[in-house]
Amino acid sequence: xxxxxxxxxxxxxxxxxxxxxxxxxxxxxxxxxxxxxxxxxxxxxxxxxxxxxxxxxxxxxxxxxxxxxxxxxxxxxxxxxxxxxxxxxxxxxxxxxxxxxxxxxxxxxxxxxxxxxxxxxxxxxxxxxxxxxxxxxxxxxxxxxxxxxxxxxxxxxxxxxxxxxxxxxxxxxxxxxxxxxxxxxxxxxxxxxxxxxxxxxxxxxxxxxxxxxxxxxxxxxxxxxxxxxxxxxxxxxxxxxxxxxxxxxx
Length: 250
Ligand SMILES: Cc1cc2nc3c(=O)[nH]c(=O)nc-3n(C[C@H](O)[C@H](O)[C@H](O)COP(=O)(O)OP(=O)(O)OC[C@H]3O[C@@H](n4cnc5c(N)ncnc54)[C@H](O)[C@@H]3O)c2cc1C
Known about the structure:
Blueprint: E1 7-13, H1 17-28, E2 33-36, E3 50-51, H2 53-61, H3 65-68, E4 74-76, E5 78-83, E6 86-92, E7 103-105, H4 108-119, E8 125-128, E9 132-139, E10 142-150, E11 153-164, H5 171-175, E12 187-195, E13 205-209, E14 212-218, E15 222-230, H6 234-240, H7 242-249
Parallel strand pairs: 1-2, 1-11, 2-8, 5-13
Antiparallel strand pairs: 3-7, 4-7, 5-6, 9-10, 10-11, 12-15, 13-14, 14-15
Bound molecules: flavin-adenine dinucleotide.
């Protein structure tokens, strides 16, 4: 791995969708942009696997859509919900005024690898993996860069602009004294996968029953399943054990 530049115009902490797309856009605009990602790769199960038609439109505007759609993915044109025993359509993307009138399901690591490769075509773009931002660098009350921990030890990166794209528990946001507004989602989702049998009928849909919501997404070889539980119920369900959970889902 080459050393990270120690002075850039824009330094972005976090190589998630926000950081990678911003790095790509800034480098495309002719700036030097350095993205710092603490993990060694982009592997995250089920994170941001849905790519919405509006995002696909942006990819089209950037001239990247055809390349993106060459990667393995599933396209979903309609979503349905089963309420009790009745199946009702809840979304029909085929009427959207966009180039892609469908949702795409694609592993987030494939999407991020694709963005990284597209961004790497611009000379101003750099991405450093296994590089953790540990703090802001301030001078005279102004942010002038970040402190970074690399495999080779601590480094300082100076930048005209520092962007905190380091996720929901952002270290830089906290250090900058910015406060997030908690909207307090009343539920959690337990995600898991089930093998898709050859005979399996059905399509991507949500199932609503008294006090329960279950989502099944057709991922080709498997079903990506989401079981919606009340906020705070996870420990109780875990204590109940796997057989009880299987029974509940079945
Ligand atoms: C289970 C789950 C399923 C989801 N499904 C979908 C979906 O289907 N479709 C959809 O659109 N959205 C989905 N989301 C939401 C989506 O994942 C987020 O909106 C999106 O990932 C936010 O992007 P981000 O770049 O802001 O942050 P993140 O994706 O959280 O990326 C932040 C990055 O910063 C890195 N980082 C953190 N701290 C540091 C540091 N100090 N130094 C360097 N790097 C650091 C992290 O490793 C990470 O790679 C899902 C989220 C979850 C949790």
